[in-house]
């Protein structure tokens, strides 16, 4: 079976945006991303509950493929930025959201740390918080190393932050369609506050 990677042919970018297929492609993108999470969860169950390491490995591969499919469909709909400027604006927003994610996930771990909740589960959630911070550090390093220099705020562009995840949108959010959703957590435009 030929593995198709999202970077193999970028001529697909935005091909279904604004067409009668856009809604169906968006549903496929969401479904495939959910499918990826499902396969990863099944891999954990297979390994930890039943000791089926080979089955877990296969589920992880299926999850990787499903996630790749979701990314392909998202790009087909032009969901993520394709030009350099908005690409780096999004990465900057992601980086800030990852740092906020560390705080939010640690708060979740604190709530989970109660009688009746497995301590290993709480520690796993704390590990996820650490990973969120690491994601913020990695993306910040990318920005520092590769992003064109320039301060969007100096250009007098408004900045809107998602109240849920912290993602920052630079520019006029009013120019986005009514059904615009945060690229990280999926919240609607109404979840953004002007900074």
Keywords:
3 strands, 3-stranded antiparallel beta sheet, mainly alpha, 195 residues, 4 helices
Can you offer a commentary on this structure?
The structure is a single chain. The chain has 195 residues and is mostly helical. Helices cover 55% and strands 5% of the residues. It has helices spanning 22-48, 53-76, 84-112, 119-146, and strands at 159-162, 168-170, 192-194. A three-stranded antiparallel β-sheet has the order 2-1-3. It is globular.
- The total beta strand count reads 3
- Mean of residue pLDDT values: 90
The neighbouring-strand order within the major sheet is 2-1-3
What is the CA-CA span between the terminal residues? 48 Å
Strand content: 5-15%
Helix content: 55-70%
Give me the number of helical elements. Answer: 4
Element pattern in H and E: HHHHEEE
Low-confidence stretches: none
Shape: globular
Strand-pairing-aware structural class: mainly alpha
Rounded to the nearest angstrom, the radius of gyration is 19 Å
The major pleated sheet works out as: 3 strands, antiparallel
SSE topology:
Layout: H1 22-48, H2 53-76, H3 84-112, H4 119-146, E1 159-162, E2 168-170, E3 192-194
Antiparallel strand pairs: 1-2, 1-3
Helix pairs in contact: 1-2, 3-4
Short description:
This protein has helices spanning 22-48, 53-76, 84-112, 119-146, and strands spanning 159-162, 168-170, 192-194. The chain is mainly alpha-helical and 195 residues long. Strands 2-1-3 form a three-stranded antiparallel sheet.
């Amino acid at each position: 079976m030929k593995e198709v990677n999202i970077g193999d042919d970028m001529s697909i970018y935005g091909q279904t945006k604004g067409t009668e297929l856009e809604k169906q492609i968006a549903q496929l993108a969401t479904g495939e991303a959910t499918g990826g999470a499902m396969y990863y969860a099944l891999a954990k169950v297979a390994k930890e509950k039943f000791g089926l390491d080979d089955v877990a490995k296969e589920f992880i591969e299926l999850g990787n493929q499903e996630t790749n499919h979701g990314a392909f469909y998202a790009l087909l709909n032009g969901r993520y930025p394709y030009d350099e400027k908005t690409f780096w604006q999004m990465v900057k927003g992601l980086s800030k959201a990852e740092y906020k994610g560390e705080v939010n996930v640690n708060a979740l771990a604190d709530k989970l740390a109660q009688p009746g909740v497995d301590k290993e589960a709480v520690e796993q959630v704390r590990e996820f918080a650490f990973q969120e911070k690491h994601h913020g550090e990695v993306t910040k390093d990318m920005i520092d190393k590769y992003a064109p220099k320039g301060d969007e705020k100096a250009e007098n562009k408004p900045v809107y932050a998602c109240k849920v995840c912290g993602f920052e949108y630079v520019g006029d959010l009013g120019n986005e369609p009514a059904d615009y959703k945060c690229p990280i957590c999926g919240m609607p435009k109404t979840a953004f506050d002007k900074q």
